[in-house]
């Protein structure tokens, strides 16, 4: 637990209980919870009683053990995921655009397509823009490959089945796509020449939690394809720092 300027012990105990139960595959007894958190059973009893009364935990009638309810899930879904992503990303992306002098965009999977949710532009540079609301073919973008790299094989097959052009692609192209996805999974990002814009170079990194509505990508597309490897490494680091800040704004711990 990190140190904070202002302490709220009761709140911290309640949050500790919720986080502990969220990580458990089965119900937990009051004694189990107390032992795991290093608290007395009387402390835990009072907190569990409050959490149960507010609907955050459920006590099994026969077992007397506790599990999480869907209350936290319901609270989270009162917020639009799209709005949360845009709000968490706007300021970090504005800073990134000014730092690297290139436009950057936030994208999500939309069936077999890539949807641009948010774009930030530098103020004093001519750069390659994509445009908010733009729809691009998922399989032909760096961001699409990053998103696919976070999916299991079954989900990837589902996406491939939605793409009208995939079946007619050559076996060589399909193997190259599979390798690109594997490389993205290994490296945690993609740097590649654009398949959609001649002379452009794309950098894309993941954002959010894989398998959830927050799974997204942060990317830049630059016409400076002749930039040195050292310069691109610097750009990748800047984009990844920005992604980490966005994750922090979403409440997602850095890995």
TrEMBL record:
Molecular function in Gene Ontology: DNA binding; DNA-binding transcription factor activity
Keywords assigned: DNA-binding, Transcription, Transcription regulation
Domain of life (superkingdom): Bacteria
SMART domains xrefs: HTH_ICLR
Residues in IclR-ED domain copies: 71-252
Residue ranges annotated for the HTH iclR-type domain, each copy included: 8-70
PROSITE patterns, per the entry: HTH_ICLR, ICLR_ED
Pfam families (UniProt xref): HTH_IclR, IclR_C
Single GO BP term: negative regulation of DNA-templated transcription
Matches recorded under InterPro entries: GAF-like_dom_sf (IPR029016), HTH_MetabolicPath_Reg (IPR050707), Tscrpt_reg_IclR_C (IPR014757), Tscrpt_reg_IclR_N (IPR005471), WH-like_DNA-bd_sf (IPR036388), WH_DNA-bd_sf (IPR036390)
Name by which UniProt lists this protein: IclR family transcriptional regulator
Organism, as annotated: Rubellicoccus peritrichatus
Taxonomic lineage from the root: Bacteria, Pseudomonadati, Verrucomicrobiota, Opitutia, Puniceicoccales
């Amino acid at each position: 637990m990190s140190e904070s300027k202002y302490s709220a012990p009761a709140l911290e105990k309640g949050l500790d209980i919720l986080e502990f139960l969220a990580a458990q595959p089965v119900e937990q007894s009051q004694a189990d919870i107390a032992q795991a958190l290093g608290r007395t059973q009387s402390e835990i009893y009072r907190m569990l009683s409050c959490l149960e009364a507010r609907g955050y935990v459920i006590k099994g009638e026969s077992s007397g053990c506790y599990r999480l309810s869907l209350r936290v899930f319901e609270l989270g879904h009162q917020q639009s995921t799209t709005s949360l992503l845009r709000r968490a990303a706007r300021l970090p992306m504005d800073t990134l655009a000014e730092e690297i002098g290139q436009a950057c965009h936030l994208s999500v999977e939309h069936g077999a397509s890539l949807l641009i949710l948010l774009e930030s532009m530098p103020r004093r540079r001519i750069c390659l823009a994509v445009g908010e609301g733009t729809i691009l073919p998922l399989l032909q973008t760096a961001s699409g490959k990053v998103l696919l790299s976070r999916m299991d094989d079954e989900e990837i097959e589902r996406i491939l089945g939605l793409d009208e052009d995939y079946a007619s692609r050559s076996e060589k192209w399909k193997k190259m796509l599979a390798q690109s996805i594997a490389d993205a999974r290994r490296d945690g990002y993609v740097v590649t020449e654009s398949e959609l814009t001649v002379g452009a170079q794309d950098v894309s990194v993941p954002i959010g939690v894989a398998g959830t509505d927050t799974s997204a990508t942060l990317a830049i597309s630059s016409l400076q394809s002749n930039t040195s490897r050292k310069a691109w490494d610097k750009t990748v680091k800047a984009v990844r720092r920005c992604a980490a800040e966005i994750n922090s704004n979403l409440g997602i711990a850095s890995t």
